[in-house]
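Ops channel
N.P.: pipeline sanity check, posting one input/output pair.
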């Protein structure tokens, strides 16, 4: 899993992403804080250690964790970079404009 996180850190879009963890989940979002998550989508990644696979889901954080919705993709460590990158592009495309995310 460490190599997969390193892959995410190496992407050119990394400065636009924020991440936080919750036990065996981690969430990638464009929301700078959890309090800002209502207007942002996220990619939820769950590591299933016994099977050594990732479950990946996309949606609004306010709509619940990946346990509340089925994963859109399941992949192993070797295919994680190829599988997660379209989710990241989808996340960036769904991000609200900066003027909507900051108070004036």
């Amino acid at each position: 899993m460490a190599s997969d996180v390193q892959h995410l850190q190496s992407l050119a879009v990394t400065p636009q992403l924020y991440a936080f963890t919750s036990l065996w989940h981690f969430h990638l979002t464009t929301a700078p804080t959890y309090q800002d998550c209502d207007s942002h989508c996220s990619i939820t990644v769950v590591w299933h250690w016994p099977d050594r696979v990732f479950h990946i889901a996309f949606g609004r954080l306010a709509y619940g964790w990946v346990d509340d919705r089925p994963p859109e993709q399941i992949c192993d460590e070797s295919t994680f970079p190829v599988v997660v990158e379209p989710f990241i592009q989808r996340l960036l495309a769904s991000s609200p404009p900066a003027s909507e995310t900051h108070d004036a």
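N.P.: looks fine end to end. The first strand starts at residue 18 and ends at 22.
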